[in-house]
Amino acid sequence: MTTCEFTLPVLEAACWFEEDPGIQGLAPGGFPALATGRPALAFVEAIQRRRLSRLARGVFHCAEQVAPPGDVRVVFASRHGESERTLSILRDLAAGTDVSPTLFSMSVHNAVPGLLSILRGNHAGGTALAAGAESLGYGLLAALAALRADPAAPVLLLFGEDRLPELWAPFAPEEVPHALALLLGAGGRELGMTWDPEGRGPEPAEVQSRHFLAALAGGGPGVWAGPTAAWDWRLA
């Protein structure tokens, strides 16, 4: 397979970390806009906020910062999704007890973007995907493909990861809970992206999203190699 070059036109960008990520160039009021701590989510009714996981709160906050009103196509990417809820369901199944329908509906991989679309009244199509350690990279490719299919309509890329439950934590790099949202559309600032399958290697200890955000914030090139490819992002 050959190396592929892409250009992502980024109109708006926002990210959230539970704590300061220490990424060069990433700051409140910058690009992308950084938020830390517990998101307020004033646009979500209190009864709904209480049901949201930490992952959903982070994703919702970022989406609210960049998404235009009305219908917008959404691509949601996450490696693990609602891992706490998934583990709870597995424990119920192992114990032979009934699974809560509400817990199940909030655990499926498209639950976060689906609930967000309901709250925002967004009737446009959406995609939810997981691609292991490279979920963000392939989410970006899916969003770019959607934009190229209809360049006149922006695409909202959402990404989020939570801290894994203790039982599963040894099987993946440790992550600070974080999320990001990008609005892709014509006229946005250009972020170059290279996908090189020849550069693939063992999964590194640092997650892909940190390198992507460093490049987007202008803190230097973002180079990261994973199990299927090497990825490189840089501002044009």
Helix content: 25-40%
Judged by helices, strands and strand pairing, the structural class is alpha/beta
Regarding CATH, which class? Alpha Beta
Number of strands: 9
Distance between the termini: 25 Å
Task: Please give the count of helices.
Answer: 7
Shape: globular
Which stretches are poorly predicted, pLDDT < 50 over at least 5 residues? none
Q: What is CATH's topology name?
A: Peroxisomal Thiolase, Chain A, domain 1
How large is the share of residues in beta strands?
A: 25-35%
Order of helices and strands: EEHHEHHHEHEEEHEE
| Largest β sheet strand count, sense and barrel closure | 9 strands, mixed
How many structural domains does the protein architecture include?
A: 1
Q: What's the architecture, going by CATH? A: 3-Layer(aba) Sandwich
CATH superfamily: Thiolase/Chalcone synthase
Taking all Cα atoms into account, the compactness measure Rg is 17 Å
Brief descriptors of the model:
236 residues; alpha/beta; Peroxisomal Thiolase, Chain A, domain 1; globular
Task: Tell me what the structure shows.
This protein has 236 residues and is of the alpha/beta class. The chain has a single domain (4-235), classed as Thiolase/Chalcone synthase (Peroxisomal Thiolase, Chain A, domain 1), CATH 3.40.47. It contains 7 helices and 9 strands, in the order ββααβαααβαβββαββ. The chain has helices at 46-49, 54-66, 83-95, 101-105, 111-120, 135-149, 208-216; strands at 4-17, 33-36, 73-77, 126-129, 155-161, 178-184, 189-196, 222-225, 230-235. Strands 1, 2, 3, 4, 5, 6, 7, 8 and 9 form a 9-stranded mixed beta sheet that branches. A hairpin with a 4-residue loop joins strand 8 (222-225) and strand 9. It is globular, with a radius of gyration of 17 Å. It starts with a strand and ends with a strand. The mean pLDDT is 91.
